[in-house]
Specification:
This protein has 401 residues and is of the alpha+beta class. It folds into four domains: 87 residues, conserved putative lor/sdh protein from methanococcus maripaludis s2 fold; 102 residues, Efflux pump adaptor protein, beta barrel domain (Elongation Factor Tu (Ef-tu), domain 3), CATH 2.40.30.170; 63 residues, RNA polymerase II/Efflux pump adaptor protein, barrel-sandwich hybrid domain (OB fold (Dihydrolipoamide Acetyltransferase, E2P), Beta Barrel); 76 residues, Helix Hairpins (Orthogonal Bundle), CATH 1.10.287. The chain is 31% helix and 32% strand. It is built from six helices and 24 strands. The strands form six sheets. A six-stranded antiparallel beta barrel has the order 4-13-16-15-14-17. It has a four-stranded antiparallel beta sheet with strand order 2-23-19-20, with no helix packed on it. A hairpin with a 2-residue loop joins strand 21 and strand 22. Helix 3 runs antiparallel to helix 4. The chain is rod-shaped, with a radius of gyration of 50 Å. The chain starts with a helix and ends with a helix.
């Protein structure tokens, strides 16, 4: 009996645990079925996502030439240190030098003491007159001697002697004329004439000063022809018509004086044949041609283009087709723009032509009348994304109120 109990009790225990496991599994199965049959069905509904608001702007068509800008300083076409080729004491100065005035080409600006040269000229003229008289006498004597020789009343030796004296006198006369010419040149070197029409910038000597040959007496310049040299980038130079063919591209120059901008018409007159080794730019020289009249004048009157004045230059470039001026920040990746078209984002191709500070000029094709330029930056732009113009939203709010 004891052995039977030792076998039956473990068997009963095992059967109990097997039955408990089966009951748990059955309970879980029937419980899952019950919950599935009595669940609440939730239908899927679309979520209303907010439409992104963007700031937009208009496309401004380009109807004139592109502005190629540069900066520089006003300088004369010519600046010359006026000097005499020979030294001496200054006896005369042109009023333009003392008053910083103007002069015309050929005016005598400076005279150096030339009393010695004038005396040499008078001496040379006297010697020439005496030699010419001597030569005239010899010619008369020679003609008489030849006449007498033909009648056997004079010897050949006398004729030869007079002929020799005549040739010697002529040689002396030529030498004296050369001395006169040398004295006249020396006198001319004591006179300094204006090489061009201009004005005096600086006076460096006074009447009575003794100057050496070649030393500066005054600084003169071409007042009626002022220029500005500006550095032009290669990409900008390529947009100026005839830039390398000698054409005078029109330009405008703005010079600020006492808080007032004065404008001059100008033109490109020359281009340096080499690139700057550091900046890799070309230097273009713009000549001022005519002042543009302004309604606002200073009490001092309209100031001239002063030497060393800072100037802003705008050169007229090409007039492109299908081009628009837009903010530089609206150019995306250098070759696209974002357009709000029919309430959605359109990533549109654009060709960058020229950058003018915060404004870029781009060529865009196939624009529609209602297209708006998107100015707002989008984190993840995708074509077709729904967008709303913040200007339309503002107008709607104003109407509602």
């Amino acid at each position: 009996m004891r052995k039977v109990l030792e076998w039956v009790i473990p068997a009963i225990r095992e059967l109990f645990w097997i039955g408990a496991a089966i009951a748990i599994i059955a309970g879980g199965y029937f419980g899952f079925q019950y919950l599935g049959d009595n669940r609440t069905v939730v239908e899927a509904e679309p979520i209303a996502r907010p439409v992104t608001l963007v700031e937009t702007g208009e496309f401004m068509p380009v109807t004139g030439p592109l502005p190629i800008r540069g900066e520089g300083f006003v300088e004369p076409f010519r600046t010359v240190a006026l000097s005499a080729p020979v030294g001496g004491r200054i006896v005369t100065l042109h009023p333009a030098i003392t008053d910083r005035g103007s002069f015309v080409e050929g005016d005598i600006l400076v005279e150096i003491d030339a009393s010695t040269e004038r005396a040499q000229i008078r001496q040379a003229n006297a010697a020439i007159a005496a030699t010419e008289a001597r030569l005239a006498l010899l010619e008369t004597q020679l003609a008489r001697a030849v006449n007498l020789l033909e009648r056997n009343a004079a010897s050949q030796a006398s004729v030869d002697d007079l002929t020799g004296q005549q040739q010697e006198t002529r040689a002396n006369l030529d030498g004296q004329k050369a001395q006169l010419a040398s004295a006249e040149i020396a006198l001319e070197n004591k006179i300094v004439r204006a090489p061009f029409d201009g004005s005096v910038q600086t006076k460096l000597a006074e009447i009575g000063n003794v100057v050496a040959g070649g030393s500066a007496i005054a600084q003169i310049y071409t007042r009626d022809r002022m220029e500005v040299s500006v550095a032009i980038r290669e990409s900008d130079a390529a947009l100026i018509p005839g830039f390398f063919e000698g054409s005078t591209a029109p330009a405008r120059v703005f010079i600020r004086f006492a808080g007032v901008d004065k404008e001059w018409q100008a033109e490109v007159v020359r281009v340096d044949p080499s690139l700057d080794p550091q900046t890799r730019t070309l230097t273009a020289t713009v000549a001022l041609t005519q002042r543009v009249e302004s309604a606002r004048d200073l009490a001092s009157g309209a100031p001239p283009a002063l030497i060393n004045a800072f100037a802003r230059v705008v050169i007229d470039g090409i007039t492109p087709q299908n081009a628009y001026a837009i903010p530089s920040t609206a150019v995306r990746n250098g070759d696209t723009v974002w357009i709000l078209r029919d309430g959605a984002l359109d990533i549109h191709p654009a060709t960058l032509i020229h950058v003018d500070g915060e404004t870029s000029f781009v060529a865009i094709r196939d624009l529609r009348p209602d297209d708006r330029l998107i100015l707002t930056t989008l984190a993840a732009p995708q074509p077709g994304t729904s967008l709303r113009d913040i200007a339309d939203e503002t107008r709607s709010t104003a109407v509602t109120e």
